[in-house]
Amino acid sequence: MGCYCDPGYSGPDCSSRECKHGVDPLYMDDSATIKYPTFDFALLSTGVALTTGPGVYFNDGQKQPGTGYWAIRFTDTHGEDFLTQGIPAGATCAQVVAALEALPNNVIPAGQTLCSGPVTQLSGLEASAFTTTDSTMQRVNSNGGLSTYTIAYSLAFWEADAQTTASLGLGEVNEFVDSSVSTHFSSTGTILGVAQSNTLTLSGYIYRVHFFGNPGAIAEPQIELYLDGKRPSLAAPGSKVITKVWTDGQQGEDNDYFGNHCDGVTVSIDITATATFLCGLNAAEYTLLQACLGDSDFDTSNNLNVMNWDYGNMYYPHLIKLVRSTTVTTDGGYYAAIWFDTTWAGACASTAAGSPAASGVFRVLNRFRTADSTVSPLVETDTYEVYTTTGTFALTSNQSEATFGFGSRNIYTTNVTYDTAAAPTASHDGDISCEIGNNNANKMKYIFHCLNKSDIFTFLSWNQPLYNPPHINLYTAKRLYTKQYSHSSSARFSSFPNSVSTYPTNHKEMHYMTHVINTDMNTNWAASVVEDAQFYIYKFFPSEDSTYNYVAECSNRGICGSTGVCQCFSGYTNDDCSIQNSIAL
């Protein structure tokens, strides 16, 4: 027996109030930055088909997703949720911010929320990363596999912000349209009664909202469409309204797991049509980076030279954080998975003279790029500070692939070679949870690191890095479970032209899309179980040695009293003790 406290209260009898959270002023230095919550809000509606080829484009004749109102449900650091007043369809950024700042209790401080956009154009496929063949379109799977409404498309989001083109992220996306459309945009199919060619048209806005006044890890905001009764308050007659919320590598955080700044090292990013590299290192920086990376695989016996480091590999890449060398305190940086690849020796065009990197190069697994990147060709002009961790980034299983839709909180794991034949992987169905029962007692033969509730993870493709997202989100597993199958594996793969020759003909049924990982936030891209790219679950093991809790009650610079008021230490002030002042008592 015990009390279940309302948000903002704690203690055995819920009599203690939680204090305000803030950023520890001692966390900031010449290079450390704060990762404030930043979320993208998409409100779109389906439109008529175009005939310009595969991809997704805005219908210039209708830029707003129907008519009516929508709202944002925001949850603060204490877990209390607030719903804004109705926001009109096609609202400006100023209207979105005004609705957020009007929430009670000053939950969104005035003047500290930035909205960029709304996006007024969706570009089509990016040639350097995707082709325009039918097989590319078939690569993407919907949230529910063979659900009633499925369509697949690849796109890049763009925004016009301060007269510069800023990439919001490349990803494969799945959405809901009429089920009569085939998985590869058949010219004989229809979308909502309209003859379909190779392109889906969307109308609407995408907003990027930076919550600079709300530091720390917060629950992902939600878009609400039912504001008055059972009918949606935002509608597009004759079309389907689509809403999504996601973050593009910029979720808020309480803990900095990458607290080790690699002093004396700055890197640049070289991006080619086939690979991405960490470059710009001179001989001294090259050696320093080795020491900063250290061990990657829980095994120091295979480390190299006096720097005591290893290259990293498919099973244990190095996970780092990159922050611009010249930037502002609100730039939280981005994660990058790297390893040292000897097969690409001399690939860095920007590597400084005298660097020993001619023996190999640091490859970046995710298709890293930031706002200063251009698309054709991909060019990065910034230099970056490197932050490392003594934690470990590990592959869970190379016999379990992940499939998920865009903006989804459900990740499905499966083993496409799960077969009734006597194969080495015949008895593993893709489940990577730590639960073991009578029917899966030997699954740990195929799992290097199982996944539990509260574990931190992400998903990447090793054999096809170009298919990875530019920015990595770190997800937290909220729930892992196995549900009853709704689609057999043989039925799922029968739609692929090469499936007859590529996949086993005697797949064991009742396992595809049954093992589910429910996450704390939506995905910022999508992936399917496919023939040419396998997306695996990678688990992150944080280390206390490189973790710092920099967003906390009273900013770590005071004591929270039972009344919910911070009692700041000498030299610190403000209601959350986040301001350093030498004369403060």
Number of strands: 38
- The radius of gyration is 24 Å
Shape: globular
* Head-to-tail CA distance between termini: 42 Å
Taking strands numbered 1, 2, ... along the chain, how are they ordered across the largest sheet? 26-32-29-30-31-28-27
How much of the sequence lies in strands comes to: 25-35%
Report the uncertain regions: 48-62, 120-200, 371-378, 419-425, 493-510
> What is the domain total for the residues?
4
Q: Which structural class fits the helix and strand makeup?
A: mainly beta
> Helix content range of the residues, please?
under 10%
Helical stretch tally: 5
Mean residue pLDDT: 74
Instruction: State the major sheet.
Output: 7 strands, antiparallel
Q: Can you describe what's shown?
A:
The protein has 585 residues and is mainly β. It folds into 4 domains: 50 residues, no CATH class; 205 residues, no CATH class; 129 residues; 154 residues, no CATH class. It is 6% helix and 32% strand. The protein has a 7-stranded antiparallel sheet, with no helix packed on it. A hairpin with a 5-residue loop joins strand 35 and strand 36. The two termini are 42 Å apart. About 22% of the residues have low confidence.
